[in-house]
Amino acid sequence: MFEKNEILELQIEAIGSEGEGIAHVNGYTLFVKDTVPGDRIEAKVVKTGKNFGYARCERIIEPSPDRIEPVCPISKRCGGCQFQHLSYEVELKFKQEKVFNCIKRIGGFKDEEIPMLPIIGCEEIMHYRNKAQFPVGVDKNGETVTGFYAERSHEIVDTTKCCIHVEENELILETLKAFMKKYKISAYEEKINPKTRKPEKAKGLVRHIMTRKGFATGEIGICVVINGNTLPNAAEFTDMMLKAFEGRNDVRITSICVNINKKITNVIFGDELKCIYGEPYIVDMIEDIKFKISPFSFYQVNPAQTRKLYGKALEFAGLTGEEVVWDLYCGIGTISLFLAKKAKEVYGVEIVPAAVENAKENAKLNGIENAYFTVGKAEDEAKKLPKPDVIVVDPPRKGCDEKLLETIMNYKPERVVYVSCDPATLARDLKVLCGDGGYKLEEVQAVDQFSRGVHVESVCLMTRKEK
Ligand SMILES: C[S@@+](CC[C@H](N)C(=O)[O-])C[C@H]1O[C@@H](n2cnc3c(N)ncnc32)[C@H](O)[C@@H]1O
């Protein structure tokens, strides 16, 4: 066992599930952030446990051939990206293996039972993210700061630049800071309880700014989250933002909203939304379908990859025009509307009311009359829907609720298409559906939606073993 602060020479062998490098010394595992398999490093032990510990890279003795220079100057402090120092080729290999290994270890599948297609990588790994949520706070000198939380912390790394977000965010953040300075508008300050690591006291007004850009339409939406009832000088804020983008014909601000969140919480949005300019949504397009997207609604963050992901989901659904399809966890109806064009009827279920409102409007906007949407929990609402031939699920990271898996198994649709942003919960659910559930795993496709980050999206097709 090692002592805290002990200096070790380590050979990094693999990448851990959170993107850290892994080294072994006499059978003991050490995780080292910002390192790459093949690096030989000098590291300081920072924490030790019974089975594994953590060390900090102090010096790279010999860099791995897969190590690259991060494009981002703050990549080590910011908690956003984990792979700025790793070649994209190795990042993709890691993600492919992550999905495979989760299905094998957590799902209990044998190698030959995992029909994995090669991961679909990004053509563009920079400036791909259409949505950003920046915390706003105060530094030691009392100046307003915006940027990103440092990893596992509430400390804001002050920056207006980010190489995975859209470049327009820089101008939006600079304009917000100038507005707050000019009109003496305070930034949110919270006191974190060191034991619970949760915020316990707070003051100041502006707590977050969220931006979303429609890549196909150029529409930009801004939402300022405040710890109060009104944003003072809201008209001036709108003027400043519009002026900042004056003369640009590639993008335009079409929505500015204020969200009220007076709770002391880590949850970004409160319930109340006030539109102070334009519409309470932006419009974007995927292929030939238009979508209205409210600030509350989920919308995939990487438009170029979303097309490929949805394309696979649609292919896996294998529709002929005759099927009744459920699209559970449907958000604003993105997948539903693609399915509806090829199916008899589509039933979407989604928990966020604003997203369902968007989904209904989106069906109308695109002249789609065979897609129906319900607000509620998928696990409660699905069993009230007409019997499906195909079920598509696209749950949040925690995966599908057990009750929903039971419903799927009771209804026995021919095909289940599972879109997942967390391979661990995907694997857990596959174990149920392909175990007692009577389904066979037919295809597994990983899609890189989050380049330079550790998360990976995937889509799987399951078919019934007994017809
Ligand atoms: C990963 S997103 C997928 C949305 C949509 N399929 C898309 O591609 O844009 C997951 C969605 O599930 C919703 N959600 C979370 N828990 C839910 C539940 N228990 N029942 C229904 N929807 C839920 C979220 O609000 C979110 O819109």
Automatic annotation (TrEMBL):
Amino-acid positions noted as binding S-adenosyl-L-methionine in the UniProt annotation, renumbered to this chain: 300, 329, 350, 394
Superkingdom of source: Bacteria
Keywords on record: Methyltransferase, S-adenosyl-L-methionine, Transferase
One GO process term, biological-process aspect: rRNA base methylation
Domain TRAM, chain residue ranges per copy: 1-59
Record-annotated active site: 421
GO molecular function: rRNA (uridine-C5-)-methyltransferase activity
Keyword Transferase: yes
Pfam family name, one: TRAM
Keyword Lipid metabolism listed: no
Family per similarity comment: Belongs to the class I-like SAM-binding methyltransferase superfamily. RNA M5U methyltransferase family.
The protein's name in its UniProt record: 23S rRNA (Uracil-5-)-methyltransferase RumA
